[in-house]
Amino acid sequence: MRAGVLVFPGSNCDRDLAVALERATGARPALIWHKETSLPEGLDLVAIPGGCSFGDHLRCGAIAARSPVMRAVVDFAAAGGHVLGICNGFQILIEAGLLPGALMRNAGLKFVCRRVPLRVETTESAFTRRYHQGERVEFPVAHHDGNYVAGPELRAALEGEGRIAFRYLDNPNGSAGDIAGVLSRNRRILGLMPHPERAVDPAIGGTDGARLFSGLVEALGSETLERA
User: Fold this and answer.
1) Which tens digit of pLDDT belongs to each residue from 163-198?
2) SS3 assignment, position 166
3) How much is the pTM?
4) pLDDT band at 228 (very low <50, low <70, confident <90, very high)
5) What is the pLDDT of residues 195-224, one digit of tens each?
6) Is the pLDDT of residue 123 over 70?
7) Are strands 164-168 and 179-183 parallel, antiparallel or unpaired?
8) Which 3-state string (H, E, C) describes 21-65?
């Protein structure tokens, strides 16, 4: 599996995400600057990290979503590529129209930084295939604007289509339906507010996030072999 990690002014989890992907793939992912107008050839995955891209001006992720590289990411996704957005990356994916809903200021109006328990809601994606449905896992969160907002019709659609990937068991931000992460219709795009890349080593508090990356390697490696 060949991965690329986007880098924006204000990204602060790009190296963490690169390390998690390198652990899973055995190869250092390409770091892609936001002014690039194309992606490296042969990518299987584009990963968008957390942070405060462009200082969170206007709305979190709004400026980054209109950067040159995101036009290439939209085309990559339209062609069936896999895309992962974590925290600010989730915000960017929503602002780019690649995932539905909105992410607003936390209900408590405070920055939240702690480990949170989650429930795995589906295993039917490359991102969640190594988990068990209903399994309890823990990832850290670190955000001020992670309150996922979705109206009744959207929530019903997400539920009915099995597109809720993770749900909070102890909601830290007021997200509708305790939603922590959602999938695209084709299940090849995942956005989530918690940080799986910060849960890949016992030395930093746990390894529940490691299976997200190893599952990607398995799934995308199989796809590569099928295309060969």
Assistant:
1) 999 999 999 999 999 999 999 999 999 999 999 999
2) strand
3) 0.96
4) very low
5) 999 999 999 889 999 999 999 999 998 775
6) yes
7) antiparallel
8) HHHHHCCCCEEEECCCCCCCCCCCEEEECCECHHHHCCCCCCCHH
Residues in the chain: 228
d(CA 67, CA 165): 27
Q: Which residues are catalytic?
A: 87, 195, 197
Nearest Cα neighbor of 98 from 133, 140, 174, 46 is: 46
Residue type, 90: F
Do the strands 112-120 and 164-168 form a parallel or antiparallel pair, or are they unpaired?
antiparallel
Q: How many CA atoms lie within 13 A of 26 on its CB side?
A: 4
φ, ψ of residue 215 to 5 degrees: the values are -65, -40
DSSP string, 113-146: EEEEEEEE----STTTTTS-TT-EEEEEEEESS-
Bridge partners of 116, per DSSP, are 139
DSSP designation for 190: E
> What value does the CA radius of gyration of the chain take, rounded to a whole number of Å?
16
Mean pLDDT, the chain, whole residue set: 96
Sign of the CA dihedral with 111 first, then 19, 183, and 119 last: negative
Q: Tens of pLDDT along 22-78? A: 999 999 999 999 999 999 999 999 999 999 999 998 899 999 999 999 999 999 999
According to DSSP, the β-strands at 82-86 and 45-48 are parallel
Q: Which of 2, 108, 120, 111 is nearest to 50 (CA)?
A: 111
